[in-house]
Amino acid sequence: MTTRITVASHKGGVSKTTTTLNLGYALSMLGKKVLLVDSDPQGGIGVACNLRFTTVKGLVTILKGEATFPEVRVFIDASENLAVIGTGIEAPEDISFFEEQAQSGRLRELLNTDLAEFDYVLFDAPVGVGLITRELLAASDSFIHVINCRASTIKSVARLLQLFVWIRKTIKPGLKLAGILVSMYDEKNGVEKRYLKLLRSRLPLSLFFKTMLPYDTLYDKASVKALPVAKMAGGKKLAALYEALAGEIIAGKSGGAKVDETLTDSILSDHELERDLAGGRNGADIVWVDRRSDQLKRILGDLCEKGLCHGALLADEMGFLLAEYNSPLGGETLATYSSVLGESLIKAGSILEMPDANNLVMDLNESDKLILHWCSILDERYYLITICPQEHEALGEIEQAANQIVEELSA
To answer: pTM of the prediction?
Structure first.
């Protein structure tokens, strides 16, 4: 039976196409017959395989009725276990035609063609959550969500999950999440390590593949030569990782546990994602659902009432908003500055030999000031930002609120 998998990402620059090519090659080396389908109008897979030197025909050619699947596929290894089909886009108007075919549903029909000679079909999706990606997911059995550990990824990672839930509800109930794949990971980068820790704390570990793909310049060299990294000198270690990933795919495992439909439904329900997605919540709000948010908001509300403050918010050390109460400034915008302000406070405390300094006061205008207070919980830093009148002293109430926040987050 043919297993169709979409390799997708909500943002670019995460090695989605590189993953598709190298995973496909690894599966073929494990004896599986694999077809790579370039479904991105930009033609990433076609470029990665130097397909233009063999044929310019592809999906568009088939959709126009000018060729069939067997006529446009190209085997790219001697064993004929790995084949690729390009987009077939030769002119700008072909892109519009491709999108129209997606809109009409004909692209999905084509992708559902009987391809029984292949064990796996990997669709390389365009970046984002647009119409073509929707059709690819609707034609797939599962999808791999490729991410990197960057702030922009974390803040928008829920968008593709939102599309996944919607398709499960309205088009294909059997669609599964094969797993979240962390790519281009630099384990020496402290910021990335913190981002990964945050991701794993906010999403069920069972959603993640055990295999993580590191950042390595060898990928660029392999891309120039249009080769899987396994065929590059020095590529043995990276190739072994893709073989491990292929093993997880074959076993139907990610994060050490099978992610089947029942488990996925349970996860979505337990984390209130499905409810929030159906309600139209956007971006980071979907992912960063925290059952403590109501309690944290109550603490901030008490602080503002007792301290006569205009508003307050709580953010973590990377500037992600955890809770907000009546902030007169944009909560998310202000929260993103918290880590910068906090670093200034820490550095100032070091310079002044005041290691216990934990308050930073800044004038916002003639009548208002900002007070930033930081606290540490299990080696993680959190920032409480309060805005109050210039003439009012609220440090006592802020300290009391901070103690309550530490107690709540430590529970």
So the answer is: 0.65
